[in-house]
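Posting here for the record, re: zinc ion.
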Amino acid sequence: MQGLICEGTTEDSVRLSDDIRLVDDLSPRQVRVEIHAAGVCGSDMSCIHGKYYMPTPLIPGHEAAGKVVEVGSAVTYCEVGDHVILSTFGNCGHCSDCEVGDPGNCAVGMGGLSQPYAEGDQPLYNFANIGAFVQETIVAENQCIPIPKEMPLTSAALIGCGVMTGTGAVFNRAQVQLGDTCVVIGAGGVGLNVIQAAKLVGARQIIAIDRIPEKAKLATEFGATDFILAEDDLDMVNAVKQLSGGGVHHAFEVVGHTGLLADAINMTRAGGNVCAVGVPDLTATVTYNFQSLHQNKNLMGIRAGGAKPRKDFRTLTDLYMNGQLKLDEMISNTAGLDGLIGALDAMRAGTEARTVLLPQG
Ligand SMILES: [Zn+2]
Ligand SMILES: [Zn+2]
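Prediction output follows.
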């Protein structure tokens, strides 16, 4: 079958192969999934550039939806024919973190590496417990969350990472309340979801910041009340303080830039939340002035929106089916697997929200 293999730490090291196969029979609680849609996320770019220090060769891609084509002998979470969104967690389901409802903290899922496929004799790793830029993959049953068959798989795929990461930062981690004020630094795929979630819970002011002027329209459509164009000579901290009357309740840094995270601390009012949503190089160091955080502010790391996938994916699916959550509007482009590099170029240019790859063609 066809898939994209990354063999190094540059985009030149990614190639399309027609010769990939799944290596093992399913274990009792595994599921074979045909991938029908896989969003290209910032984390795929980071993975390909070696910023997650993953072993290669690997198959990138982790924001995916598809159809269940085979289940192991003990699987009860889904059936053949189900349409599913895939969760990246790969958590064990029975450690103390899983038991108290924090599957994202499960050490099994966080450190897990597997090689469910091979090209010739060469085993291939999967990225983020999925490896979705391929026609089929194998995952654990608790990574499969069934959805209604009427839902387009292209839109469903986005819930697997970008939508969950953005909305979960608001719902699960910052827990934005009715009447709160927010700033969202970076109005890309994830940032737009922070914005629409903040609107859903009734934030009264949502300030979006981006360096691309065209983002103003999309940010406003998703619920931003104000837009700041991040020009080089602009004092963004001051601009946010002026618009919000001294600082916001919640500042979301979505770009993954350490300097902007320090700015986010300064944009937050006393007692507010500073939310590190974007992911820089995992070895990066953040420097901030001590006093900027001192007034009872909370600096929070946020992995994948603090997701509880079996609950949250269904909530987001229902919100979409009821017309309350925008997903289709985020898809700027669809392409075959050979469209990955073009999608990464568009991401760098910052002109598009999301490209979704369609591995089945
Ligand atoms: Zn666990
Ligand atoms: Zn992602």
